[in-house]
Amino acid sequence: MKKIIFILLISINIAYSQGSGIIGFVIEDPAALSLKFPLQVGAEWTAKSDDNLTVLKEVIGRETLIINGNEYDCLIVERIIPNFNIGNGDANWSHSWIAKEGLIKRVHFNIVTHIDVNGNEYTNTSNDELILTDIDLK
Fold first, then answer.
1. Residues 35 and 23 sit within 8 Å (Cβ to Cβ)
2. Predicted TM-score (pTM) of this structure
């Protein structure tokens, strides 16, 4: 039986004035180009581009991760959204560690500054880390 287990660690710091936040999931249509093979350091591609959003990816390096005594030779894929401009000083990026076994680790970071209905500024900061904890490909 094949078994892959991940642990998702989430840290969210949300400061609200008077207003409410909406968190949602987006299903890509058409699909975004998540990985472009062959993966090698320096490779770059556009994962998604439309009138509202551009997502760029680049293989920025290599790192060996050791998880539960197992070594994974990984390429690090950076995702950036250059036109991510909901508010001032916004940031949105992620790093994914990809090995021949697949996704081993992902770190995502997001800062969004909003203005509420009274003109007060507030900032949402969140980061999450997804880490492979076990894999059995028998």
1. no
2. 0.68
The model's pLDDT over 99-131, given as tens digits with 9 standing for 90+, comes to 998 889 999 887 777 778 888 887 778 888 888
Rounded to whole angstroms, the Cα distance separating 74 from 64 reads 6
Residues 6+ away with beta carbon under 8 Å from 64: 71, 72, 73, 74
Angle at 115 between CA 114 and CA 120, to 5 degrees: 125
AA letter at 93: W
What are 37's two structure tokens? Answer: 């093979």
Residue pair 74/63 in contact (Cβ under 8 Å)? The answer is yes
Whole-Å CA distances, 105 to 5, 24, 58: 11, 22, 16
Closest CA to 32 of 51, 44, 47: 47
How buried is residue 78: exposed, middle or buried, by Cβ count under 10 Å (0-12/13-18/19+)?
Answer: middle
Long-range contacts, stretch 109-117, CB < 8 angstroms, 24+ apart: 112/86, 112/87, 113/86, 113/87, 113/88, 113/89, 114/19, 114/86, 114/87, 115/87, 116/16, 116/17, 116/18, 116/19, 117/18, 117/19
Instruction: Look up residue 73 and give its amino acid.
Output: D
